[in-house]
Amino acid sequence: MVLLSLEAVDFSYGNSFRLEDINLGVERGDFIGIIGPNGSGKSTLIKLMAGYLSPDKGTVCLEGQLLAKLERKAVARKVAVVSQGVQTGFAFTVEEMVRLGRLPHLGRWSNEGPGDAAAVGRALAQTRLEGYRSRLFSRLSGGEAQRVLMAQALAQEPDILLLDEPTTYMDMAFQKEMFSLMARLNHEGITVVAVLHDVNMASLYCKELVAIRQGRILVKGNPGEVITRENIEAIFGTAVAISPHPVTGRPQVTMLP
Amino acid sequence: MKKILCLLVVFTLSLTGCSLLRTSGPIVLVDDFDREISLEEPAQRVISLVPAATEMLFALGAGDRVVGASEYCNYPEAALEIPRVGGFDGPNLEAIVALEPDLVLAASLHKDAVEGLEGLGIPVLALDPMTLEEIYANIELLARAIGEDKAGKDLVADMKGRLEAVGQALGQLQEDERPLVFYESWYPGIWTAGEDTFISEIITLAGGKNIAWGVSRWTEMQEEDVLARNPDVIIHGYLDFSLVEPFDQRTGWDVVTAVKEDRIFFVDPDILNRTGPRVVDAVEEIARLIHPDKFE
Amino acid sequence: MQRKVKSRAWAYLGLALLLVLVLFVCVAIGSVRIPLSALVKTVFSPLVNALGELFSLPAWQDFGQDVPDTWRTILLRLRLPRVAVAMLAGVALSLAGATMQGLLKNPLADPYILGVSSGAAVGAAAAMLMGLSWNLLGAFAIPAAAFAGGIGSLVMVYSLSRGGGRSVLNMLLAGVAVSTFLGAVLSLLIFFSGQQLQQVVFWMMGGFSGCNWFHFLSILPFLAGGSLVIFWHSRELDALALGDEQAYYMGVDVERVRHRLLWASALLTASAVSVCGLIGFVGLVVPHAMRLIGGPVHRNLLPAAALAGGIFMAVADLLSRVVLAPTELPVGVITALVGGPFFLYLLKKRRVS
After folding, report:
1. B172-295 is classed in which CATH architecture?
2. Contact between chains at C77 and B224 (C-beta distance less than 8 A)
């Protein structure tokens, strides 16, 4: 079943940048990695999928209904986004940040109930942030802050999780943990779409990859189909060698000197 | 402190003034800010930035020597014909210089202009009278500046004589024969004249007692104090009648005797608030208002 | 978490009790010395008299009849409404400040930042210049004109910032532009006014002298409506503090919510300004102080800021009445004098901890 679909989507920021003729269907249970060089339009694609940007042409639909026509809270109960570079001048604690994720589930005057507290606890546990509850969000490192935003998105209990380079500021161990978490969530039934800059990790974890270059989808398919020497050289414009991963056999990219 | 200085100035002037002026040498004047000004000749072309000073010059019979005046100089009627050299936004230095004055009269609020004029070599006399005595001293100071000492002394003597007459009409007043007077210059935010102002002096001379005891200078007084001190008479002497909220519509003022008995008077603010010769008119008018029985 | 909720409830209760206590103290103390017994008699005499009437107890019927009329008037018709209006204005400015700070993601924003104050000043000055004082519309002309001016200025800011997606930065810039422009208009009005000049200046200094139940009742509906809208959106305010995009992802209809909150806080500001002129610092310091003490979550912050704003303003007004009695100090001097150092103290304490 198609959960989120983009059909013939065109989008441009003024004259400088555009996405053209994007067709993409996200089905329930998918784990899609979006790869491509810097400036190819990956983050813009996430913003279009979340409805924050509206396409100039074409349609974006959630469960068959036009995303722009749906009520914001209803959308936020289904789609959560982990974006980059959220900053605030206010001294929110980690727990307060994560509890904010419950916003789409709460009525205007209602208090948070045990269900909300449980969701927050779960999100904190999944992101290994239990010990961070009363730490100030603004004082965290980049990687920690990204985990908090992940937890906030998880507290929304979404069907689809859209992530924009969630591992940018993380060291290797946390990167791996983040990918494991995404895989685990996906296994539990959450549909995951992530913009990823690390092609090899994407190949290891994602079920499907979408490669973008200059605002167009160049190729999509499973990692074996997408990560070929021709494709990678066409996408990134640099010479590479492809070899199977020693343990899983998934294709891995090696730079040539 | 300033008051003491001014009194000293007045005192020394009264001692030394005569002898200095009889000689043909320069006229040396000390103004209310203790500045010394010397004039070669009695001033013939005077610019007055102060309505009260304009009135003084006319009262001294020297109205024809006033070649420039402020927007606010509206008395006597002849003053309206004088070229204007500035209003609310301050004196216009170019206009002043163009009129080639040999003396400019300023008040404390013209500090910047005073410095500018001095820089241009135009003598400035700054006036800042706080009491009736200082108004008399100002009149005599101006009289000397224009070389009309005698006119000054006569004017002061005339003013004193008229006040004397008011005093005689009132007779010896016991403390309880003096109605409590509340002078209002603003509402809401009740602005009044404190016990150390010449307004207070005027009220006393007119046979009343200013209720603003404990209040100094022109300032905001509290409504509840006005109500608790319960004035017998209210004098509004600042705003246009139409701009003042009617007293019987003000919350709580119905407990005030003056409001109950409708003894509320509007006095021409130009007479009451100007530190010029017409303060005597103010005393006469207020005395008649609060002691009508003594002036039948 | 349970314990935290409990202690927060105690904090609100404490603030509410303090508010009542402050109301009582501010009515009890003033320039005119009135014994406490007179206050107690004045407050309880209607009840006791009625009971005395009912059970024909002569002693109860006479209760409080010995309080002089003047004292009764001062207590019930001058001080009580004045303190009540001060509290309302404090609540309004503090809530509006908290909202503006959240909306603009700037902890140092104040209710006047988008030009509501200059608009209100122009409105009031125009009314004074046209002599709309007492003859035409009665006591309401100036407050009504100030209110209209304040709202008008926000309309200007709002329409000017439309280009470029009405971002926070656009709005701040439009606010600066409109404030500057209206400031010039005000100067022009003052230039052409004669005697009314002082009226404008006094009005701008702000204060609660002459406030009565009329004023109280005239701002109450705006305060109630505005606060309701703001409390209604307290969670959205948290989300907006993280930026428009993040708020959007959390299910906030950013444009619409911001629109509502802006109007609500402009309504609060304009209603406060219309009765008490421009009083600075309250809308900046109180919400900020409450945020430093209790954290930035608006569901906690807003009620605390409202109560603390009411308390702060009433106390500032009390000080303005008693410090130099029988002279009255401008209340803005007190708010700045007390608020400034307190603010610095909080900032410093925060940095150390």
Report:
1. 3-Layer(aba) Sandwich (3.40)
2. no
